[in-house]
Design goal:
rod-shaped; single chain; 2 domains; alpha+beta; ten-stranded antiparallel β-sheet
């Protein structure tokens, strides 16, 4: 049964077919005799050729499209790198600006002498320990690198703001210190007796310690505050006569003795150069003059080391 089926199939596949080609206008007719097997093989070859041509065309189109997309990606990447480089350069400029801010802070402190008075006025001046970004100009920057730079700069900007705020506060305190410093001459007269040991002006062989300086002035001459401060005493003291005492802060205190009249009251705040009294000769005195005393941290010092 199976053998008959095979023979029948073989006869079917080898059965001849005639292919006629009839050209127009009565030209000679051409014919080809082909078996079904040959027709099938020819059709398969033809379909394969068509598929190969189609695949070749598709591959060429795909390659062309890929090249276009790659060119676009390269262009986008170039723009992206240029933007990254621009951001990097902005980061470098911002870092340079922050360095200038820190340098300005140090220059101001050096000009005002606050570096030497850190215990009173300087509370900042710290420098950043964050490394500076490089100033490279290549196009191999990574987004994470630029992001780290801006994170760094943001941190440094906060530090710079804090430094400038501290500098402003320190300058206010420094100028308050300068205003309070008792370096203004209370009267315009000449010095008749300096600070230190001297002969007793009332006679006698024993010398005495003079705890201030004496200025020669006329009776009733105006006496001015040597610095900003608060009146802590106004009244009469044995030996010193009518006296005004000012507390200036920062450990300084000044006393104005042998006055004829006080123009201020205890607890009153005065400013440098303000008229606070009139000179006289009250107390133990040989004549009209001002006895001027400066104390620093509770110890009497030579006023000439402070006065301008």
């Amino acid at each position: 049964m199976s053998w008959k089926f095979i023979k029948r199939g073989k006869r079917f596949l080898t059965r001849p077919f005639t292919l006629l080609i009839i050209p127009p206008k009565g030209a000679q007719t051409k014919s080809w005799k082909m078996s079904l097997w040959q027709v099938a093989c020819s059709s398969l070859v033809l379909v394969s050729l068509v598929l190969c041509c189609a695949w070749g065309c598709y591959s060429a189109w795909k390659a062309h499209t890929d090249r276009q997309e790659l060119a676009k990606l390269r262009e986008i990447n170039q723009q992206y790198q240029e933007e990254l480089l621009s951001l990097h350069q902005q980061a470098v400029e911002a870092e340079n600006y922050l360095q200038e801010v820190r340098a300005f802070d140090q220059r101001v402190r050096k000009m005002t002498g606050m570096d030497d008075r850190g215990d009173k006025t300087s509370r900042s001046g710290s420098t950043s320990t964050v490394p500076r970004p490089s100033s490279r100009s290549d196009s191999s920057l990574e987004p994470s690198e630029v992001d780290q730079q801006f994170t760094r700069i943001n941190s440094e900007a906060v530090q710079a703001c804090e430094t400038l705020q501290a500098l402003e506060n320190d300058l206010k305190e420094y100028y308050a210190y300068l205003a309070a410093l008792p370096d203004h001459r209370p009267v315009s007269g000449r010095i008749t007796s300096p600070f230190g040991m001297r002969s007793n002006p009332f006679g006698g062989r024993r010398s005495e310690f003079h705890n201030g300086v004496d200025f020669a002035v006329s009776y009733g001459a105006p006496v001015e505050a040597a610095g900003d401060g608060v009146i802590t005493f106004t009244g009469y003291l044995s030996g010193f006569g009518r006296t005004v005492v000012i507390s200036h802060g920062y450990g300084y205190k000044s006393s104005y003795c042998h006055l004829s009249r006080s123009l201020v009251r205890q607890g009153e705040r005065v400013t440098k150069g303000q008229k606070i009294a009139l000179a006289g000769s009250s107390g133990r005195s040989t004549g009209p003059h001002l006895h001027f005393i400066i104390e620093k941290d509770g110890k009497e010092i030579d006023p000439l080391t402070v006065l301008k």
